[in-house]
Amino acid sequence: MINYIKKRLAIKIALFVNLILFVVICGASVFLLWLQNAHLEEQLRNKGVSQSIVGAKAVGQIMEEAIDNGVFSVKDAFDTDYQPIPKFDPPKYHTKYDAYLDKAILGVEDEFLLDESLTYAVAVDLNGYIPTHDSRFQKAPTGDIEKDKSENRTKRIFNDPVGLKAAKNEVKGFQQIYNRDTGEILWDFSAPIYVKGKHWGGFRVGISLASIKKAKLNLAFGLILTMAIIFAVSIISILIYVNWSLAPPLNELIKYAGGLAKWDIGHKIALNRTDELGQLSEVLERLHYSIQITKENLTKRT
User: Fold this and answer.
1) What does pTM read for this prediction?
2) Segments forming the whole domain that contains residue 75
3) Count of other CB atoms within 10 angstroms of residue 106
4) Are both 87 and 162 inside the same structural domain?
5) Are both 223 and 206 inside the same structural domain?
6) Coil, helix or strand for 206?
7) Residues 6+ apart with CB under 8 A from 130
8) Which CATH number covers residue 142?
């Protein structure tokens, strides 16, 4: 019976304490998750802004150096007489400078993609024309329209509303939501490219919202796992504490109280504690004294 009471008490205490702990942990987890997600979004937003600015500056310098070295003229750098490249749908075009940029800026764009959070990094002129796409979307043409539309996007004109805003934008780190024609939804960041003091176009970098969602899920999983471990350790710790610290003195008090109920006053309780159990032992000791006096008086009368 004593062991049964001890086990029930241990379970009740553990359940009560851990119920409170569970509520606290859930509240803390939700807050921490919100905080981490906000921090993640802010980090990615700052990255998009900074990378677009760096890319715009680099491309502008490369084009100005080409002009200074006589590779092409300022007028050629702003060429918009797009020459169609046969047998492509969507259509592709050549300009007077695109062949040079294929060699000069491809490596620069690809350098940005070493950061896996970026989906693309491209320079576009004022009309949304991409003379040289990064290597990720400059795969060899296959003849499959849908596949090439997704994997070979170089030398196309992206004059959709988002594309044109990014191309004509003159704000550093301009952010938009981009519903790409491949079905992806991205954060698009752009910064203006200037060539010889004139606005040439913009440098665009994209961050997939799917990758952001995946990163958030990873954060959530890590946080939930951590909190679950803390909760499990807490349950085990409380059960151990109840069984090893509270159960022995409780067991002694129960035996002592049971003896008093049978008028067994032959021994005193030896429980040196200052907590609630210690207070209970003092009450039982006073009860023991009262029973002893009562028993002695009854004995005298008889």
Assistant:
1) 0.67
2) 37-210
3) 16
4) yes
5) no
6) strand
7) 122, 123, 124, 153, 154, 155, 156, 157, 158
8) 3.30.450.20
